[in-house]
Amino acid sequence: MQEELATTITRATAAVCAGIAAAPIPLADIIPLTTMQVGLIAAIAWISGRSVDKRGAAEFLASLGANVGAAFVLREAFRAIAKVIAPGGGSVVSATLAFSGTLAIGAAARAYYIGGLSIGDARKAFRREKKDGAATDRQHADDLAKSAEAAGAPEGSAPPPDRQQADDPVPPGPGPTR
């Protein structure tokens, strides 16, 4: 039950983080993303029956290792550059990285707080989730590019969600989704 609840909270937090990261303003999302991720760690600790404040959650995040900190800085720099170079595509990349990074942080927190694993094993869970998430992210980015290309959109942009297909007999508008 704890694992299921923590996984649900992790996914919800990752989705919110992706939404925040999609904002086209470079570096505007660092503080809200970090706050959401620290809050996620504290929530997972609470679910496990432990009391962890924001400082303790931040220390857990830091204890995942210097590599995580360096990767965070590089990821944030890449996301900011991507937003400047290709605002639409950069926002997609930024949202994808924030989503997968938050999933990885949640996996590490679940391993440590709920699974009772050591911090070293939590680091492994973090790396494993990042690796799995990176493969999924690449596939998702490829799928977005293919759908944008098929819809005739310029390279690096996704089609609008309400775009009507040429062979669709039902016009777009209000009403139930099909």
Molecular structure report:
With about 180 residues, the chain is an all-alpha fold. It contains 6 helices and no strands. α1 packs antiparallel against α2 (about 30-45). It is elongated, with a radius of gyration of 18 Å. Residues about 155-178 have low confidence and may be disordered.
Specify the biggest β-sheet. Answer: none
What's the tally of helices? 6
Shape: elongated
Helical content (DSSP H or I, runs of 4+): over 70%
* Cα gyration radius (Å): 18 Å
Q: How much of the polypeptide forms β-strand, as a percent range?
A: under 5%
What structural keywords apply?
disordered C terminus; 178 residues; elongated; mainly alpha
Spell out the blueprint of helices and strands.
Layout: H1 2-21, H2 30-47, H3 54-63, H4 66-85, H5 87-114, H6 119-150
Provide a short characterization of the protein structure:
By secondary structure, the protein is mainly α. The protein has helices at 2-21, 30-47, 54-63, 66-85, 87-114, 119-150.
